[in-house]
Write a structure and sequence with these properties.
Number of domains: 1
Number of strands: 0
Order of helices and strands: HHHHHHHHHHHHHHH
Length: 292
């Protein structure tokens, strides 16, 4: 356990160093491409991929909780955007192509929810530094790219951090099983509200992504399949699961761009991401396999 903690701290330290270099370079050069790279740390798909990575390589429970928090933050932000309908800055100030309303900033909301939740789950000093830098740099990148006002990113950080605190409260009072269930049900409710009231495509996405998370009790029951596998096998299983999820999203975009079809695509992608490792690692860890 100590060895794994030291390895996690080392990886975090490397990530912190790289992010610091990128942020400093971005500030000095004000290059839109590097600011866009920084803003990806608040992208829902990247946060979901990181949650799946933690689910396979580190801890099943933490990974699923992070996935649930990410989906919930996206659902809440999408509904708030449509309900408040506050405009973005003038298009001539944009340095990247964006769409939709401004308030609150989705990237700031998701980054604050994800990185705060990870920090709560793994309270390490080096992770505190990385999480704070990630949230701050993602938030500032939205201003540097000219697609948000300060009010948008401030509201996003407060919304995401509040959601992370509520999620932790649910876990401490009700346990992780109810925590994930309630977050998933809330995401589905918010998504259905957004899709029915406003026809928001992102609302369809979060409903599709949240539904597989309701199977968390089954995943938790079979987490020993992942835990007993070797690191190399888990890395291969992770690569297979993320590839399968990416292919599902890519194929769905080719077949149909209808909002409902997008929701189905995200449902399939999350199912593949969560369930692909189980049969693969079960085969690798089987007694017959180990004998040879």
């Amino acid at each position: 356990m100590r060895a794994s903690s030291r390895a996690a701290d080392l990886i975090t330290a490397i990530a912190l160093t790289l992010l610091s270099v990128v942020v400093v370079y971005s500030v000095l050069t004000d290059d839109a491409r590097t600011w866009y790279a920084v803003t990806l740390l608040g992208e829902e798909q990247l946060c979901m991929a990181l949650a799946v990575t933690i689910y396979v390589l580190a801890d099943v429970e933490t990974g699923i909780v992070l996935a649930a928090v990410t989906v919930a933050s996206g659902a809440l932000c999408s509904l708030l955007k449509e309900a408040l309908a506050l405009p973005r800055p003038p298009p001539e100030s944009w340095r990247v192509v964006v769409s939709g309303y401004a308030f609150p900033s989705g990237h700031a909301t998701v980054s604050a929810a994800f990185w705060s939740s990870l920090l709560i789950a793994r309270r390490r000093r080096i992770l505190t530094l990385f999480s704070a830098l990630a949230i701050a740099s993602v938030s500032y990148s939205r201003l540097a790219l000219g697609v948000h006002y300060p009010r948008d990113v401030i509201a996003g950080v407060l919304t995401g951090a509040s959601l992370a605190a509520i999620s932790h409260l649910l876990q401490s009072r009700l346990g992780p099983r109810m925590q994930v269930t309630l977050l998933s049900l809330a995401s589905i409710a918010l998504g259905l509200a957004g899709s029915s009231l406003y026809g928001n495509v992102n609302s369809y996405k979060v409903v599709g992504a949240a539904l597989p998370l309701l199977t968390y009790p089954y995943l938790r029951k079979h987490k020993h399949i992942i835990a007993r596998a070797g690191l190399a096998a888990r890395i291969l299983a992770l690569a297979a699961s993320l590839t399968a999820a990416a292919v599902a999203l890519k194929l769905s975009a080719v077949v149909s761009t209808a909002p409902a079809a997008t929701g189905v695509a995200y449902f399939c992608a999350v199912v593949l991401a969560l369930y692909t490792p189980l049969p693969l690692l079960s085969i690798v860890s089987s007694p017959l396999r180990r004998r040879f």
